[in-house]
Specification:
104 residues; Arc Repressor Mutant, subunit A; mainly alpha; single chain; 5 helices
Length: 104
């Protein structure tokens, strides 16, 4: 484990405390493709990579991720085509708006 892994863990823990999954879902939407695209924003892929894997038009995804960055649930690291996107924490793919946590 290196410093980058520890930093990712810290961001996820703080993110979960600050923004619950239901609030993130209200921003990203409930469509499977959007949830998949959000979860692919793990800092290892470019916008083009994410668009191909999620099967979403890159222009639409660009506007969508800009909104997510503005809402504070996604971060952009770097600039230009080499920029990477990092989500605050991943959302379970089977999670839907209004769904209750399994722990409840």
């Amino acid at each position: 484990m290196d410093d980058t892994d520890l930093l990712r863990c810290l961001v996820q823990v703080i993110g979960r405390a600050a923004i619950p999954p239901e609030e993130i879902l209200s921003v990203i939407g409930k469509r499977k493709k959007q949830i998949k695209a959000f979860n692919l924003c793990d800092g290892t892929r470019t916008l083009g990579d994410i668009a191909r894997k999620a099967k979403i038009n890159q222009g639409n995804l660009s506007r969508t991720t800009a909104r997510w960055v503005e809402q504070g649930i996604l971060f952009r690291i770097g600039e230009g085509k080499a920029a990477r996107l990092i989500h605050i924490y991943p959302i379970a793919p089977n999670r839907r708006r209004g769904a209750r946590d399994q722990a409840e």
